[in-house]
Amino acid sequence: MASLVSFRAGQAIAAGDAVTINASGLLYKASALEERTSRVVGLAITAGSTNDLITVNKDSYFAALSGLTPGSSVYLSVTSGVLSPSYSDWINEVQSTATTSAYVTNLGRSVTSSGLSIEISKPVFLNVIGGSILLEGGFSPGYLLAEDGSTIDLEG
């Protein structure tokens, strides 16, 4: 059974956007660029403008996406509201911006090319310097271990 919640929008939200809640309790598009915006509460099911009530899927199957690879983990993009279909896509996005750090948030695993099993993890802060990834402790691992026990390969 889907875990659905509704929030008042603080900005225009499209169906399928990854969303977060601000300190005032308003819904905004999530982004991997800052800690506060990388804490995803779910994917918007409905679209709306500022002050509209938006329904959010927190932790169930979401079938209105495209471009996913079945079996791959999906991540919050550095672009507000957008999903990155793989970890390598996420790294490429971060490296194409002027930033040297971002928060990696795993949103779940793709089940089909259009469907995502939503299982949102806590954001992890990463420094991306010259193609290398440095965690807060200053080391650069070969992989990250996700909460569900799966790994995110950082090499190759």
Features:
five-stranded antiparallel β-sheet, 2 domains
The order of strands across the largest sheet is 1-5-4-2-3
Structural class: mainly beta
**Content of β-strand:** 35-45%
Unreliable stretches, pLDDT < 50, 5 or more residues?
A: none
Ends: how far apart? 38 Å
- H/E series: EEEHEEEEEHEEEEEEE
Overall domain count = 2
Number of strands: 15
Radius of gyration: 15 Å
Q: Describe it for me?
A:
Strands 1-5-4-2-3 form a five-stranded antiparallel sheet. A five-stranded antiparallel sheet has the order 6-11-10-7-8. The mean pLDDT is 86. The chain folds into two domains: 56 residues, no CATH class; 81 residues, no CATH class. By secondary structure, the chain is mainly beta. The protein contains two helices and 15 strands.
